[in-house]
Specification:
Structural class: mainly alpha
Number of strands: 0
Shape: elongated
Strand content: under 5%
Radius of gyration: 57 Å
Largest sheet: none
């Protein structure tokens, strides 16, 4: 019994079932448009092959289906669809006035926007100028400090040269570094006793 169930769900049978289902769905989707195209084609062929029906003669009058008696009709309703030169000019004038007002409004908005941009630009220029002044002050301070450092360094080098010269003179006259320390210590001991 288990063998019969496995054969019922074989891959080939499953593929066949899915193929039939795909064809049914395609027929369901594509069927109606194809049917109507086919029917239109048959109708066109049957019309061209047999001219059993003569062409229609249409003699439609220009009168409306309902006619209102002259006394009861409202003339303004009928005239509504007609072009009235006075109304057309008024409408054109109103339209032109509306357009000119719109243009003036946009011009005013553009002018205000331009003024805001000009104020912002002026403020940015002021801030830039202020920052530039601060930077110039800082740079001049740095230059002054650099000059003072260079002068101090030159003075230090000159002082070292002067010290070396005096030390050389002192050595030429008999000064020794260790001897003076010992003498100063012995003199300090003699004075304290």
């Amino acid at each position: 019994m288990a063998l019969n169930q496995t054969r019922a769900c074989s891959p080939a049978l499953l593929k066949l079932g899915l193929g039939v289902m795909a064809l049914c769905i395609a027929g369901y989707i594509l069927g109606p448009p194809l049917y109507w195209h086919f029917m239109e084609g048959l109708a066109a062929v049957s019309r061209s092959s047999s001219s059993a029906c003569p062409a229609c003669d249409c003699d439609c009058s220009s009168q409306p289906l309902l006619s209102i008696p002259e006394g009861l009709s409202n003339g303004s309703f009928i005239d509504c669809a007609k072009r009235d030169p006075e109304v057309g000019e008024d409408t054109e004038k109103n339209f032109a006035e509306l357009l000119s007002e719109e243009l003036k409004l946009r011009e005013t908005e553009a002018l205000e926007s331009q003024q805001r941009a000009d104020r912002a630009l002026l403020e940015a220029k002021k801030l830039t100028s202020q920052y530039q002044k601060e930077a110039d002050k800082c740079n001049s301070g740095m230059e002054t400090c650099e000059e003072a450092r260079e002068k101090a360094e030159a003075a230090f080098v000159a002082q070292k040269k002067l010290t070396a010269m005096w030390e050389l003179r002192a050595r030429q006259r008999g000064w020794r570094e260790g001897v003076t320390k010992a003498r100063s210590q012995s003199q300090g001991n003699v004075q304290s006793a």
